[in-house]
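Hi,

Apologies if this is the wrong queue. I'm a grad student, and the batch job for ABC Transporter ATP-binding protein from Sinorhizobium fredii produced an output file that my downstream script rejects. I'm not sure whether the problem is my script or the file. Here is the sequence I used:
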Amino acid sequence: MSEIKIVNLRKQFGDFIAVQDSSFTVEDGEFLALLGPSGCGKTTTLRMIAGLELPTSGRIYLDGEDVTFNRASARDIAFVFQLFALYPHMNVRRNIGFPLLSQGVPKAEIRARVEETARLLRIDHILDRSVSGLAGGDRQRVALGRAIIRRPKCFLMDEPLGTLDAEFREVMVHELRELHNRIHATTVYVTHDQHEAMAMADKIAVMNHGVIEQYGTPREIYDRPASMYVADFIGSPPMNFMRFHSGLNKGMRSIFLDDVEVAVPEVGEDVAPGEMALGIRPEHIRFSDQSPIRGAVYGSEYLGTNQIVAVETAVGIVKARVSADHSFRLGEAVGLEFNPANIAVFDCVSGRAIA
Ligand code: ATP
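Support response: The file is valid. Your script probably expects a header line. Output copied below for reference.
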């Protein structure tokens, strides 16, 4: 068992609130990604869990035990930083085994565990190499090896792939997830990269200005964003927002976009008249000559298997991801059709999803 639970966790630096009353539970064996732009409080949250930063208020529990005021070394947590330091004068074997050496583990056991760890990370063939000559991906694997050899209850990782080039990053994303599938250690992973979070995590916490805007599975976050912020942060291109001015009543099943009635999922509450937005992801738009929602092709981006076509409409530019079969002319008239099940409606004042 290794469950991490944070309750109303808050961190202030002077008057500035870096983390605002956050609560979540990472269940045993789960992989959580803390996702958000630079400065939103991800690292501060992680450092509090690690015991490197004291919360202003709130509680941290590991396996039900209140560890809020425990020292970092008493928490049985492994922290993998972006800028890890390997010992350059030691070979791979000694780098990986070092944490056990400093714990006084017998030499024979260290040897066996280093080899087991290296096999897990597929670096058993470079155990006797010097770390100074290793490529980025292998260095990262050695750093991971050093973290997992202790068999900690939990892993905390702060942008561990941040320094790798794009190609290695992608390989490591899959390796990290595969490693997680094999060792099932409870993990909290900080990243600003939505693709990393979507590809690796069981759950994602999307953060904005110190607040967790949404906590859910990658599918929930992508399909049912709780706010315009989340809808805009996840997905590329992000969700389209088509604005309209209206009041909404609970139970409504349609709205008017520039006088065209559009079916939407059921509105969940009454909202006073104001600016609203219909949200639809680019891949949930179809072109249809019969549709009354009209526009003119404004530009297109060919992606091989499909294309992103930007369409100028009466309610702004809308991007659709459609088959690459057809080439569109600039200015070509098109009709846009949306599947009601894939539509979201947002209150632009609060930013919250209401349908
Ligand atoms: P990044 O990816 O850039 O590290 P982040 O989401 O991890 O971003 P944090 O590092 O948690 O963000 O920082 C959140 C906010 O708290 C930032 O505005 C940062 O400047 C501020 N902050 C962090 N540590 C301190 C500190 N020791 N003193 C004052 N302000 C701090």
